[in-house]
User: Fold these one by one.
Assistant:
Number 1:
Amino acid sequence: MKEFIVDACAKGKRLDVYLTEKFPDKTRSNVHKIISSDKVTVDGQIVKPSHKLNGGEKICVEEINAVESECLPEDLPLNILYEDGDIIVVNKARGMTVHPAETVSSGTLVNALLFYCKDLSGINGVKRPGIVHRLDKDTSGVMVVSKNDFAHVNLAEQIKNKTATRKYLAIVHGVIADNAGIINGAIGRDKVDRQKMAVTSDGKPAVTEFRVLERFKNFTYVECKLQTGRTHQIRVHMTEIGHPLVGDEKYSARKNPFNIKGQALHSHTLSLTHPTTGERMNFTAPLPNDMEEILRQLRKLQ
């Protein structure tokens, strides 16, 4: 049982929205199901997910994990870049979801990890064991996974404090004039389409550095470095400056002339300090074949 008093600033918010903010590891649909299962009371009363709050109410949540189910091991291909007693570094394939969600229960990186390795940190619950950070389903590249809670906490702190650095490679529409730049725009839920993120006045701070690697007739090959780690950050920021990612159907209306399923975005390098030894480590995932083929075609046209 979890009990707390609603913040005064939450006046007017829906109950499901408020609880999603309180429990960021839960999706809104997950919270919606918990409320609908009569596991939540407001001032002792069972209410609907759409119930509007006034501020100052007492909320009791009986079982926040009520709808979670065990994630089952599956024998799926894994590209292991590095492994020791504390961490596993993988090169995630484009098209693979990181962890189970409302609409995905199998075929994820977590399913594969559970088959490969029985010891994963349990901080994020049964659906996200070992997952310190994530990549979008259609983003490929390097990720670190924790084998124990000590490593998980340490790595999460490094990401939070920006001592762990991540660089991505992307192919975007249009020719970027500047050789380098910084995109500083707070990111939050799109006001119209809740399945999308957008640069918003009330979003969370987000900063992306970019550097041009190659220019082509109608496209640009760039390296992006994250200073923060918001959902869809690079995809949103590049769209915001008028250069959406090739293949990004969610954020770009431009035609994709290449054979790539999903956005042309790859987590290329990850630098971190080993949680036990203190050694500074650098991991690189080579550019996937689909992006290499796009670059080959573009260079041929130069």
Number 2:
Amino acid sequence: MRTVTAIIVCTAAAIAAGGGFAETMDAYPEEIRMVLDVTQPLEHDRGSRLPLYLWPARNPGALSEADAEALVRALDERGIGLYCSWTGDVEATLAQALPIARAQRELGLRVNVDATVPMHGFCDGTDATAHLDAEGQAFHDTSCAGAKLGCPYRLDHRIPVIRERIETLAAAYADEGLPIDFIFADWEIDGPIEWNDSHETAKRCAVCREHAPGLDDFLTYQHEVRAIRSRLQREAYALPLRRLFPDVLVGNYAVYPNDGWRYWYDYFERYLEGQPARVDQRARYRHWANEFTPTGYTFAMPVVYQWSPMYAWYDFASSDYRWFYNGLLVASNAGAHTPPDTPIIAFVHWHTVDLTQEGEEKPPQFSEEKYQELLWHMLLRGIDAFFLWSPVAEARKEVELLHPVYAAAQAYGAFLDEGVPISFDTPKAPGPVVSGLRLGDRVLVRRTDFTNDAAPVTIALPRGGSITVPRADGACAVIEVE
């Protein structure tokens, strides 16, 4: 599938040799103990494939070298990559992160980092980053969850501020001879954004008027805003890290190659009538600028969540297919348009992200069975790994659903490593959905049905030949190419 720098995986014997893990459990936060409680060691070697990243499997606190190594070993047994979050407190950040990084380095595992906190603040809410009206008075756009978003053309002085935060923390790793192998940010409501009232706000800004030709046209404005947003991320975040660590996987929430359309809305976004969109029943899919390549990112990070409004977008009789359909659209969009040598790590979440207003009916929950089926189809359409986001109250169930799929998939390591997706089609009506990875003359395939139809399905393959896929609920199959 997608080539990833080889990582030495510690063997079960090496883990066992560490010993003493049971005695250290009390040293770890409750969420991490929960993860260890509900997951089991992998039955199949994950080779050099990316680990599973979990929101609750992070930030273990300042541990001794022995406790850090024991925790890293135990999570790696389960295929889980522990990560540490950078904060504004450099000393406290490094006290937590460096023992973990040393343990990961010693065991030949990836050193994983969350750079969300130091990335925030391009739009710092001050007059220096604000829009300016014709009289020079400062004002902000507050239509995106109340954040005080400013003028895209008055943010350059913030680049060195953010970059210094990133470089200071990254240099501490480099000074110890430690790599950073994987670093992500959940950087969302900051910097230039074109959604909600942002476009109309920009039209009232004298600076935007001066610098943005064609400001009145939404698509022109979107292209300009996303180009600036990409430059901020590249200069303050991606390039400084890549200079220190040339092989680093660096990326950000919701930044990924695509077909020019975005099939989902974040919690703070809304569609405004008149904006260009692709219509699908009641869904309005928005134009999406190419921002991945200009950022300099080295992995893609699509987002597959069950946002409550999207349930009402569709009229499918199958309740589950309303959720499944949209999730598969998003995953297929990323899988089809991301280069094979660029890993895809998808944010996932099962519980409905409830955005209903007072008086609105809450949609039914996506079933556990079909959510796990969606995860399988994502893997068979080019998604390399999952990153679970979850509030604390939902985390246990989220891990219980996600980890078994990831663990079971490792049985098909050769297909995951080298297989090529056979289809990115998302059926427009409930029925059989087929995804697979082709490796030579064999295809690892999964079929998920949303009706009672049990008839075999014949799939023509992109590189010639075909396969006939019988119904086999809840199971993968390896089928010879006809």
Number 3:
Amino acid sequence: MYSIFKILQELKVKSVKSADYYNIAALPSIRDHKIGISQSEYPMFFIKCNDSENVKSIDCNLEFISVQFNRHCQLLNNKKEVEEGIYTIISLKTNSIDLQEYFLDTIYLVIKKLPQKPNLKELKIEVDNLLNLFNRLSQPAIKTIQGLWAELLIIEQSNNPEYLIKAWHSSATDKFDFNDGKDKIEVKSTSNSRRVHTFSIEQLNPNEHSTLLVASVFTVMTGIGKSIFNLIHSIEKKLKNKEGLLHLNEIVVKTLGKDFEKSFDVFYDYQLGIDSIEYFKSADIPSINTNNIPREISNIRFDCDLTNLSGIKENKTNSILHNSLFQNKL
């Protein structure tokens, strides 16, 4: 999508500027909706929909994104022909290349989810989700870049990334990184030379009929390596269902918040990360017996050194979640 937008930028520079129309281009495999460029040379989308039910809609203007509903637009295509119509306009408001790429890819995925001729009610549901997503860019991060990178590496190295993505942070309050409603995976990362990780007492005590694996990864920052978005592009190539990519991107933004742009410039040693991955059964990890903890004490956290523990090399259970992990570990 970004390559299409770059062409629009070049065409706009060569054309006579006019406030009467927007330069637009067709979207791959989509007929009625268009990608465009604003007078400030920011990316934007024009989405055509049916408003036969006269749905009430209020324009929205956030720090990074704006939405205008049911606007009469004059659009200039690459044949220099003017197309007129009523569109909902979704615009980005930053010249950050990283944010522009993310915006273009995300909105395109959302458009592909829509029916061929969506009604305004259907569009508003997706728009509300987008506004909540981009609003996260103004919020504090809820996890470190290092921690998120390690989780993405586990997905990227798995033999069933789509299943892991579905189980990834299924709830904002989930205490495990991956939870498919039965089994759990918790990912721990360290930049030290030993596998010392911090656990909460609850993390090592899943419910009775669940099994928990702890993934341990060494994450060492480097000048040249792979960033979070390098991993996302690698995961994308393995996905058959692109809706999984939309869910993955949503989690990344919600997790990083204000650190989103910063994360494009943070790289970790990819090969070290792969070579260092070890999986441990939660029952094998030293912990504190919950029977010895007074009921009045809560929120217990402790560091545990897994360096001398033996990890598992294959999954011998029928857990779909855990079976997803071992493609490169056998």
Number 4:
Amino acid sequence: MKEFIKGANPYLPLWEHIPDGEPRVFEHNGEKRVYIYGSHDIAKTRYCGRNYVVWSAPVDDLTDWTCHGVSYEAHYEDGMLFAPDVVKKGDTYYLYATEKCGGLCVVASSKNPWGPFENPVETKIGFDPGVLVDDDGKAYVYWGGCAAPCYIAELEEDMATIKEDTIVRNPMGHSTCPWAPVDDGHISLIDGFFEASSPRKVLGKYVYIYSKRVEIPVPEMGVYEPCNGFLSYRIADTPFGPFHDGGDISLNGGEILHDSEGHGTMTYRWGNNHGSIMEVNGKWYVFYHRQTGVNEYSRQAMLEPIDVALGGDGRLYIGDVKYLDGEPVSSKPVEMTSQGPHVNGLDARKWISAGYACHLYGSRKNAHIRPVYEERDEISAPIDDITSGTTVGFRYLQFGNNAPKTVTVVLGEAKKVTVLVRIDSYKGRVIGTLDFAGNKQELTADLDAGVIGKHAVYFEFCSEAPEESYTFDWFTFD
């Protein structure tokens, strides 16, 4: 029986919805693993949920994730648990849990990286806390959100109390928000802080990772209206700043299509972004999230390999880094992919859910990945509301050294439609055609051309009924 792809992008099971994931590598009981601490989108009709769960993977295999179960339950009736963070100091792990929809930060502790985290203590820390334990053992907390200022402060030894005389307000200019207008002289339209503070220390530099709200167009990335789908960074030589330079690490708008003038078009519905970077087993990754469904209430954890390089001028480059004569000179957001930790591409001969698509383009009805919540390994997350002309793309698949002979596509329901299989581009060479007559959900067709190695693959839906909608469930090659 064919195996099912797992640990792709999203890297957790398709039924799991963890946004805001802060990655941490901890060595516990002699084993090094990367742990993910995020919100838990289980409320379905609003952000987040009333518990946190912890997942982890061995540092040498980021496709093999284990759920450790619930690590913390909400203690207050009014509101959900928003984005947390976890750090280790000494032999204790500290969870910064944001109760009351982010309105109250409490610090709970455990002797295990997966909890349970207990004995919560109320703090004066604000929205979306991120914590840095420096090399000398001192701890700093960063927080803030939306149009409000961001803050930095040092923590006392109890890891909960702020040293009031260390508070820095507005270490970065903040964004504007129509729902919370503020004009205090600290607004930045270019790299305005929105939320999602995540301080890290990288190659001796203090890196402030955050969600940026762009207020001006960024045509090369397909951004033409205010957008907070970026995960960005700025750098400093001290934990309090001043912060400068930096750039964008990721944008969760899918594959960016470019025209002859370099203007871009996003192919995935962007939404808020939150995450961080982590060195895992000698390689760097950005952990972020994407949206599924038709709102922001069913987000999923994503990751991409990135470059991290320190230039001779002391500037830190993070993301997709460009080099000149071996020296880093610029960086841009890393591409959003379907493969995630499968860096050589998804095995084309396994069953692949349509829910791993990173390109949904051309639908008249807002094609989207359907959120699924049934906890079983072989579940798919179908794509709904596909119409004629829609392309569904996966970057990337690995075909190996022997070209497959057939392609199989499974629809959500039997309908009459032609599906073209293209490689390398959504307008690329057609290597297969599946003519669904309306009486089958599953169809296998011969490939018209041989394909080996690693390629992007696109499925184009063609119909004479422009308003008819289709559901794409699974596919595989043989």
